[in-house]
Write a structure and sequence with these properties.
- The structure is a homodimer.
- Chain A is α+β, with helices and mostly antiparallel strands.
- Helix content of chain A is 23%, strand content 27%.
- In chain A, helix 5 packs across helix 6.
- Chain A is globular, with a radius of gyration of 21 Å.
- Chains A and B meet through helix 3, helix 4 and strand 13 of A and helix 3, helix 4 and strand 13 of B.
């Protein structure tokens, strides 16, 4: 088996400095520190430097009265992001997708943390337990209700994304909203009361009618739309008879290693267009192509 | 490497019947079906049969006016749970812990789904986006806000739980709230913007001052207190010099395979008391003991 691959949106050298989040004096000192940097966002999109890295400004650039969250330290400098931008985090703008294409993975990883955090605050100003307006605590990493005292933490939603393998081929699917020719690995949210392995089996049964065994973990990645933890797996399918859930998928097809390799190489004659390099579906397909034939199923 | 182990609280044969959740007519028919069963809970605790399995009643046993969530199908019978019980899901009663000790894993797994779902509704009656009272939709698997239309889904919080390994020993820690002599694997929530592997490295650095590499996934488990997805890993520590975060841990120690094996065997001379059999920390330690020496670090 080859080494664990490195997916996009990972590798940030951000030191999150968790121990400072509970220390208001330390946070106040960092907010007065001229070395502190503020992540430059336009809405929820990053702005890039000439070198296609994240753009940082000084804390004075923050909108008047904006709360700041401490992202942590990078290159020894305190890093903040302003809370309170308005747009919803579900959508992905064209320039956002361009940024993910251009940014080094470690930069995209830092951005992912900031985007998910800002967006979570935007959509969680009220206490889910009692309906009161909540207050920001822990240097931007939680909210607390002044009425019922409930604490609320940013959501991280685990999602399984997986290849079912049978007889040297893997199943790929497409949703109707995908660009033309685009196929990817099947995916779905992990529900309460199930393991990663059980979620993989359930989703492949629901979406494609497949019965699988031998579910194996491959890699993981944060995905800030709005705040998923992508968990990539492979599983052995009992047979290749697919029953498609047409509410979820428009089409599905089994592809060989040669076919997947040609798609990853952007070959115009490939049977499909592959996921973008920074998506873990790409990492998963690349990993599968690099396996010895029969290593898994 | 040995096969993927089977942790506690997994293996339910519940068919969640996701496609029915959006079909109010089908749900209404199931609610009128005499074969439908209601999970018996006292607060958030399960009640057991003579055979130490989950106790099920008829839908007529539900409190008057209670909403019912469709858990799915077991043994061909529709299975529901009543929503609206009051207590908070963070605590664990003594009889709850006894139930987890007694229940077969597949029964505990079904219960875990029900408990997390009921508890999530208890603590999420209001819209986090606008503060309005929300309504139950999708047969109990989501809530929707009548004011701003936001949909809210049950939380599943990924948690990494891990063994740092160095020179044939693994690091175990204890919190001050643990019972006497009890040690377990270190653990922490995955934050937005990080992968499983990065969360493992961050937590081991924060809690024990360790620098690790070669993080490997071992197994996963749902943990319904209130709704975690436990992701068990091992990692290779650069050295064994521990700097303890005393806010998180009261003590930590490196243990050999022989020491861990004696604790798992409940040997009174073992250097610590091991986690309960149904906790994934137990699975992880058992798995590690069964590895060939040097397979990992």
């Amino acid at each position: 088996m080859t080494d664990t691959p490195r997916p996009g949106l990972t590798g940030s050298s951000l030191d999150r400095a968790d121990h400072l989040r509970e220390d208001p004096d330390a946070i106040a000192a960092l907010r007065g520190d001229l070395r502190s940097r503020l992540l430059v966002l336009d809405g929820l999109d990053p702005m890039l430097t000439d070198d296609f890295t994240l753009q940082w400004g000084s804390l004075a650039d923050a909108p008047a009265g904006a709360d700041l969250a401490l992202l942590g330290f990078l290159d020894g400098k305190p890093r903040f992001v302003a809370l309170g931008e308005a747009p919803s985090g579900f959508g992905r703008s064209a320039r956002m997708m361009q940024a993910l294409d251009l940014l080094p993975y470690e930069e995209a990883s830092t951005f992912a943390a900031a985007r998910s955090l800002v967006d979570w605050h935007n959509r969680h100003s009220f206490c889910a337990q009692c309906g009161s307006t909540t207050e920001i605590i822990r240097a931007g990493w939680a909210r607390q209700c002044p009425s019922c005292s409930a604490q609320h933490f940013p959501r991280t939603d685990p999602v399984v994304i997986m290849l079912a393998e049978h007889d040297g081929r893997v199943l790929l699917g497409r949703q109707s909203r995908f660009p033309p020719r685009f196929y990817s690995a099947l995916a779905g949210f992990v529900e309460v009361g199930e393991s990663v392995e059980e979620a993989v089996a359930r989703e492949l049964k629901e979406e494609a009618g497949l019965t699988v065994s031998n579910v194996r973990y491959v890699a993981s990645q944060p995905w800030p739309f709005p705040s998923s933890l992508m968990i990539a797996c492979v599983a052995a399918a009992r047979d290749d008879a697919v029953t498609l859930d047409t509410n979820e998928l428009e089409a599905a097809m089994w592809c060989s290693r040669a076919e997947v390799a040609s798609a990853l190489a952007d070959d115009p004659d490939a049977p499909f267009r592959a996921p973008n390099h920074y998506a873990i579906a790409h990492t998963l397909l690349r990993w599968w192509v690099d396996q010895h034939v029969g290593a898994f199923a």
